[in-house]
User: Fold these one by one.
Assistant:
Number 1:
Amino acid sequence: MFKSLTARAIVPVAVAVTGFVIICCILLYSLMKSDIISDTVTYATGLADTVVKSTRYAMLNSDRETLKNIIDNVGEQKRLEHVRIFNKKGLIMFSSVHGEINRFVDKKAAGCVECHSGPVPKETLAAMQKARRFTNERGVEVLAITAPIYNEPECSAAPCHIHPAEQKVLGTLDIGLSLADLLQNLKVMRERMIVFSIMVLLLTVGGVAALLWRNVFLPLRLLIEYTERTAQGDLTAELPDCGPELSKLANNVRTLSEELKQAESSAPRGEGTE
Amino acid sequence: MRNGSSLQSEQKPPLQDFEGLRQESESRISRLHLKSGNGPLSLALFIALSILAQNDFAILPSLPDEVLALLGRPPSTNMISAALVLYSFSAIILILGRMMSGSERYGGVLHVGYLAAFYTFYHFAHALAENFWAVFAAGATVLILESYHLWTYCREEIRKERELLAQLERKEKSGFAP
């Protein structure tokens, strides 16, 4: 199968084009996926900051009812899986999932361990370090952001409740966004890229194969048939139409064959045997 | 008659010349057979490496923190991916060029080294899981092309050597000099 001229001309081109298109598609998909996730993290960080800012006044006034309402209302938004605020000890104070209020979060779990891995917890994290991905108990893939709620002069000096001024972080807001839509979009994008790649491959490999067949292999087959008939002594065979180069070759074969035949017939009998 | 027979014995080639040429040709054929096996060998080596890489080199012990600190920050994933595209493109062009010129050169083992470097860079950049199949596709393409080139080259050379052997046999039988 691989010995024929057709295979030797088409197989390397097909392998090279197919391989390169696959490499580029995988890398492009990976690049687009990481860009989309990075954009989602930026969006979620902005959303977390918005929630922290909108709860600031209620926190300063120690208005727990308003705070609870804000968290409940934000938590009702589509795509939001959870919104919770927990204090420095890890006790959940407010949550859109009411069942988890007054429970402790695990400091060794993803999302907490980034700050609490050392003996002294970190106070700031880069945007991508604040993000974590996990599958929640409902089987939904979630992208969660933890945003620290920092102590401010207004907080430490407020008469209602006392936070010492040296305490940098008062608590943390944890917000989780469902990635179901994003993953669905990525799946559609992946399928479109596969279809596009197959079309490019079919056009390239098919195009090369068709052109080679029409311009090289078919004329070559006609030439082989013609030379075989000429070699058998049939000088009446018609010269095939196989392009300028191959026609010239066929003509040369015919001339050679005619001259040989003439030389053979004009030579006196028995000359070669002496 | 005596003169004629002495002339004939002078023209007749020594038998050891035929034997030497035949042995040389046969050794070339076995060398080519051996060489054509290098392609699948490199492919097998690459597949073994890929099996290790698929689990993010979990079997291998991780480097100590001091060594990691000494190595510094890994290049960004985008940079590694750009290098991978450039590498695949140039490797494919070089192999196709070698196919066109009928060159004997084979760089399969060298390519396994380059691909191992890509796996390592992605591993240290914590992006191997997402880019594993890209490196695998690059390796498979380059090594299949290399193997195909080597296989067709060796087969062609073996055919030429066999023709030479047949010609030698004919000459030996007819009493011509090699």
Note: Residues 1-10 of chain B have pLDDT under 50 and may be disordered.
Number 2:
Amino acid sequence: MIENPQIITILINRVRKRLFFYRVLKELVVFLAVGFFIYLSALVSLGPSGLGRGVFSSYLFIVIVAALGLIFIYRLRYMPSKMDAASTIDRKARLKDQVLSTYWFIRKPHNSPFIPMLIEKTAQLCKTIDPGRLLSINWIIPYCLVAILFFAFYIAGIQRSFFLGDWRSEIFNGARVKVSLRAVSDPKSADLFTDVFGENSEDLDLADSSLFTKQYDENDLVGIQDEINMRAILARDGIEKIAKALDGRPEYREVVDALRTEKLDDAMKMLSQVVGGGPQISDNLKTNEGEYNSPSSDSQFLENIDKVASELGNIGAEINEEALAQALQSIEDAQSMIDSQDQLRQFNDNVGGLGAPPDQLSPLTAARFGDQANPTEAQPSAEPISVNAQGGTLFRQGAVARGESDQDSDEGHQAGSASGDSEAAALEGAAVPRLEANLQLETVRINESESDGRNDGEQTWFYSPTEKQTGEDVNFRDLVGRSSYSNSGVIDQPETPIRQKKIIRDYFINIHNKGEIR
Amino acid sequence: MSKSASTQIDVFQEKFAKVKDEVSKVMVGNAEVITLVVTSLLAKGHVLLEGIPGVGKTKLVQTLADVLDLTFSRIQFTPDLMPGDIVGTNIVTENESGKKTFEFQAGPIFANMVLADEINRATPKTQSALLEAMQENSVSAGGETRKLDQPVFVLATQNPIEMEGTYPLPEAQMDRFLFKLKLDFPTAAELHTIVDRTTQKEEPKATKVLEKGDILKMRDVARDMPIAKPIQDYAVRLALATHPEIKDCHELVKKYVRFGVSPRGIQALILGSKVIALLNKRNHVSSEDVRSVLLPSLRHRVLLNFEAESELVETDFILNALVDSTPDA
């Protein structure tokens, strides 16, 4: 039979353990809440400056956890004493220090005649006390409510951008995508998208897009996209050249069709079969590495294309395996360029578009173009420009001058005119002949082999007189620009939305930007 | 043993209730004061009653003497009262053979219950005549020390508003009182009852309900009441908290208190708590018991400074603040 003092001591021990458990729980809740709050506060305050990102945030997290952990352990270094437990029982059960006094007299015997009765009464009382009821865990409810509110706030902050801004994804998702602009400045690979954005970046979602918008200037991003788009155009043009070169050979009809329908994989397969198998092609390429110049730049790519086209276009001669291998390589390069654009499209579809300079639009509409009575300064527009068009945002266009005639024009075109003879009365700025020439580019592509019977496969480009002045001085951007303009369907593609067409059209019409006027 | 202890507590409470009920037949209101007066008697203490004239200070003491079957004497303190008038004096007496001898004529202090009415009207010299009687329960007169018959219970009264021509009790004298009780002015209902009881042909009279021996036994029972160290520690901490010289003392204490309570104050707290615990039929003392006797035990032992007096700050206010700021056991 358990004696009265034991009954009291057992109850005190149970309450003591429960008190310690609750204390641990409470400290843990406080520890987590305070830690999370400090961490978030630090990130919110440091985030925009870049200190709250990357490795720093990890270190910050570790330091906070370590500091709070030490405090946590320090605060829990002692268990509650038995006297504390007895006092808690008295307080909770409103026993007016009965258990405390009894436990004291159990520990320190006293000769008062009242003590045995006190111990007996207290023991009877302790039998009826349930520590679980005495120390309910209801105190944790407010903490949980606070935690729920906090997490709801946190979730809302993730879903909406009001809380943490566009760098939230880095904090919580921990996405790390390294972007190297080196690929833009010095393109070595045909797959520019992968070079810039990394593998599988087209699958990134909206939350990750902020990484790019934060790490790079919007103009850089637009530039990257333009590069990709331009190169895709270049690639398509090259493919067209190859297709045209092969067009005269009936045995390659299917290849030509595949090339023109952009079924490049099929085209390469067919060509490979003609040559004798894919792996061999690679071998040939390796052995002929000296002859085939891997495209270290876009101009190199064009040179390769021209070389291949000229070899393939020589109807009179047999196509040798080497030429086919080079054609295959060129097609493969072109496919990479087009794939980059597809990846970019996918990426933009996923993330909703990267940054685009808002100031490329002018409030001038085509209807107002040439209205000398109402000259209008170009104003920034919040409407973003489309980056999903095949021609991209193209390259930098120059200003055209009001009423300034095109000096070299012998066809009556006027500077500033976007379409023939219309005046650029509403526009201001110095004439930039080369760029202005781009605006007025009207190319006529004539295959001389078809017209005069020559069969050298070369294309001859004819320009209006305005364009000729810059014809010899082309660089990559001019080339791309010309290509895009030569492709008159750039805004007539059926898949191009009307709104984007309008944006593109307005862009070229209202190309001015006050800062660019020279 | 347990049954005996339980019986002792029951008897104690029963007798206490009888005394209280009997006193309440004559006294109207101030039930708490009545309880504390009896508590003080059972805790071997003395009581200083303070109240405006006519609230029943003297009546309470007289009634208590009637109920307790104790010898009672009353001393009306006046400025010309001499110590000898209190403790007694030797007078020359002549026996049958004509021989003259000194014979000690006991003063009014030689009673079980002494009412020192308006004690602050006598000079300090006379007031001090009570010191030895209250503390040592003995009187020295004519070169001889005489023991007082137990129990000795001094009840002094003083009028707080009529201060002209009075001699406030010195601190040493004040410290001898276990409790200082304040009688509140009766409420309207209580006044009606007072009028009804005292304006009839026959006024109600209290009867003896307790023998002297009962009181002494009850005193012993009270002394046997155990108090656990944590509770005692609480009383000590409360007492120490009244000292302005202690580091980290309460702001009010630092500002208004000149001297804190003496060890007698802690004794008073504990003794009073023990009796209160018995009255509540408990066989242990709780923090609540300590708090219930805190004000009567300590209010006259905390000496305030001039600033407190000028700002009319009372000790009760400071003590209540200390209770709030001191964690209990």
Note: The longest strand of chain A covers residues 444-447.
